[in-house]
């Protein structure tokens, strides 16, 4: 029997508890297509104390909770499909403090990623964690999934920028973790347990994020390459002379779809099976000369067919479109996505073996590859045929998953590089984590959330 919501109205106020069907549908899902949202209600707290009161109420009434940020995830981690109460952090969207001497900014979990990036720029600083959904994703969600994005090769993951957290545990206790300290050698750093926990241990309500210096002259190279076997050599050649901020790749099929959908010209004259997009901060003529030298070396040794280098910020932004527009371009075909990772030296082997699996099992399916090849993160997108029922298509893709994940396991890879496990990847966790690891992870969850109310059914 569903408990009365009267006490939640008293905690939140009438304007911060939503029960209309449209609201339930909007807040009860993320960007996955496989699940039908059916939450009990949507709570929109404004303070950490209100979040604590909600969690205490949920423990008292045995109500499951689903934390909700920007709902841009692709693994079902923010889906409420079993009568849960959604706690959406949209109203906790303020930057509450800034210390210029340490370059640290304190913000609530509902702050939009782009909002934090702009705040950094306004203060002549830089927040480098960046991805296509930065205009709608929230900092709390980024932390809960340890979001990566396009600049990991230079700047690392979200984890590398989190100095402290305020959280409400599954028990309903408020913890302040690390307090922005650079050095703190006092035992277990619980902050790092919450980073990447997918809301299964508690709810992140505030974070202190460090910023860095702005790049001065970001320059982009678009390269046409004949085969991925040469990517390792290409990457090594550039990295020995240049600090790359991004190293992306995509297939010719992806290129064609973006050009057609957005009416864009081909950026390089030579058509190739794959393209790499490299970004670096050209702070001097010496760095530009080194980049051109690496490019010429690639042409001479035939692991680069052709290329173009940006001559202005506008041209750099134009070149990025060919990579950044891929997800939006193919979204109408409801792709079945696999966000996976291997070490960069194994990318070519993995991609070729997976291509062979998909071609053998489903030769009629169209496959689009792209990803952050500099850190080994690949996005495999299998496109749904127009004439095929989507549920049937999804089942077909799920039948192939174990074959793909066996290859991943053999190569020491991960079934989820960026979007977490959620509902979608839950059945396959054992391909990346051992039984012993999973047992310890379950023990950690039980310590923070003994009644299993925090995002139950996700991860495990």
Q: How is this structure best described in words?
A:
The chain folds into four domains: about 5-90, 2-Layer Sandwich (Uridine Diphospho-n-acetylenolpyruvylglucosamine Reductase, domain 2); about 95-215, 2-Layer Sandwich (Uridine Diphospho-n-acetylenolpyruvylglucosamine Reductase, domain 3); about 220-325, 2-Layer Sandwich (Alpha-Beta Plaits), CATH 3.30.70.2190; about 335-440, 2-Layer Sandwich (Alpha-Beta Plaits). The longest helix is centred in the last third of the chain and has 21 residues, at about 390-410. Helices cover about 35% and strands about 20% of the residues. Helix 1 (about 5-10) runs antiparallel to helix 3 (about 50-60) and helix 13 runs antiparallel to helix 14. The chain has helices at about 5-10, 20-25, 50-60, 115-120, 140-145, 150-155, 190-195, 230-240, 250-260, 285-300, 315-325, 325-330, 345-360, 390-410, 435-450, and strands at about 15-20, 40-45, 65-70, 85-90, 95-100, 105-110, 125, 160-170, 175, 200-210, 210-215, 220-225, 245-250, 275-280, 305-310, 335-340, 365-370, 375-385. It contains 15 helices and 18 strands. Strand 17 and strand 18 (about 375-385) form a beta hairpin. The protein has about 450 residues and is α+β, with helices and mostly antiparallel strands. A seven-stranded antiparallel β-sheet has the order 15-12-14-13-17-18-16, sandwiched between helices. It has a five-stranded antiparallel β-sheet with strand order 5-6-10-8-9, with helices on both faces. Belongs to the FAD-binding oxidoreductase/transferase type 4 family. Keywords: FAD, Flavoprotein, Oxidoreductase.
